Amino acid sequence: MDEGGTDGINFIIQKDETMAIRYRILCLIFLYWMIFFTNQKSKNDYIEFLKFIYNELPNSIPITYDLAYWMNKPGNKEEAKKLYQKYIQLNPEHHHAKMRLDLIELEENRQ
Questions:
Q1: 3-state DSSP call for residue 40?
Q2: Quick check: 53 and 60 in contact, CB under 8 A?
Q3: CA-CA distance, 33 to 77, in Å (whole number)?
Q4: How confident is the model over 26-56, as pLDDT tens digits?
Q5: DSSP labels for 20-85?
Q6: Secondary structure class of 93 (helix, strand, coil)
Q7: pTM to 2 decimal places
Q8: Under the phi-then-psi rule, with left for phi > 0, alpha for psi from -120 to 50, and beta for the rest, what region is 29?
Q9: What is the CA radius of gyration of the chain?
Q10: 57 CB contacts (<8 Å, ≥6 apart)?
Q11: Could you count the other beta carbons within 10 Å of the beta carbon of residue 101?
C-alpha cells in the first residue's frame, strides 16, 4: 500500500487513533490561524478557540501548553498556572513549562 496521500491518512487513523486526533488538532489550528491572520481576529478570539478545543480534548499536550501560554497575561495568571501544572503532569520533562510556572509563582510571592 502507498502510505502517501489519503491512503496514508487512513492508514494512520486505523493504526493509531491518538495520531489521528493529533492530526485533526493540527488541521484545526492551521485552519484557524489562516482565518485569524486573514480576517485580523483578536488574540481573545484565538484564546476562545483554544478553550473550545481544550474543552473537547483536555488531555491534549499541545493544546494545554498553547492555552497556558496565551492565558499567561495579567488577569489570567491563576488560570495559566493551573494549565501549566496540568501540562507538566502530561509532559513532566518540558523544562520551558516548568520555567514559566516558576515565573508565575515567583510573581505571586513578590506581591
A1: coil
A2: yes
A3: 24
A4: 777 777 666 666 766 677 877 888 888 888 7
A5: HHHHHHHHHHHHHHHHHHHTT--HHHHHHHHHHHHHH-TT-HHHHHHHHHHH-STT-HHHHHHHHH
A6: coil
A7: 0.66
A8: alpha
A9: 17
A10: 21, 25, 63
A11: 20
